[in-house]
Amino acid sequence: MQTRSGFTLIELLIVIFIMGLFTTTLVFRYSHHRYFLAMNSFSHLLKSEMELARQQAILQVNVLGLFITPTYYQFYKLKTNKTLQWVPLNEKDTFWNKTAIPADIYFNLRVNNNGILLAQNNQQPMTSPQIIFLPNGEITPFVLTIRNQYTPQQLQIIAHAGGDISLEEFS
Predict the structure, then answer these.
(1) I need a surface site. Which of 19, 43, 88, 92 has the fewest CB within 10 A?
(2) How far apart are CA 65 and CA 88, in angstroms?
(3) What is the C-alpha to C-alpha distance for residues 39 and 102, in angstroms, rounded to an integer?
(4) Per the domain annotation, does 127 fall within a domain?
(5) Do the Cβ atoms of 43 and 111 come closer than 8 Å?
(6) What CATH number has the domain bearing residue 56?
C-alpha cells in the first residue's frame, strides 16, 4: 500500500483563498485608518494653532480672527488706525501665513449655532473672519466638523465663548 505525503490541490487552494480574504480585510482596514490618522493629525494642528492665536490675542492685547475657506485658512489681526481693517497676521512669520487644507479633508462650520457657508471662490476677498479671538480670552463659539471622504469617522473642534477649545471624535 502506498502512503501519500503532502497536500492535495484542493487543500492548497482553500488555504490560498483564506489568506487572500485575510489580506484583503487588512488592506481595507489599514487604508481607512491611514486616512483617519492624516485627518486627526491635521485637526490637532489646527486646534493647536487656534489655541496659540487665543494666547497671542491675550498677550498682545489684540483682536485676532480666523478666516476659513474650503481650500485654506488664515489668521488675521484687527488693525485699529483711523478705520478698522483686518490684515493678515505677521506675513513675515511663515507660521501665520495662509495654510492649505488637504484636498481630501472637508469642513462644516457652525458659528453661534448657525451654519456658515464657506466661500467657494478662493479669490473672494475676506470681509470679516468667521472666528474672533478677543484679548480677554473669549472666542466666537463655534463647531468645526472635519471629515474625510475615505473614512466614516469625523472630528469636531468645539470652542465655547469662555475660550475652551476641544477636539472630539464621533462617527
Answers:
(1) 92
(2) 9
(3) 9
(4) yes
(5) no
(6) 3.55.40.10
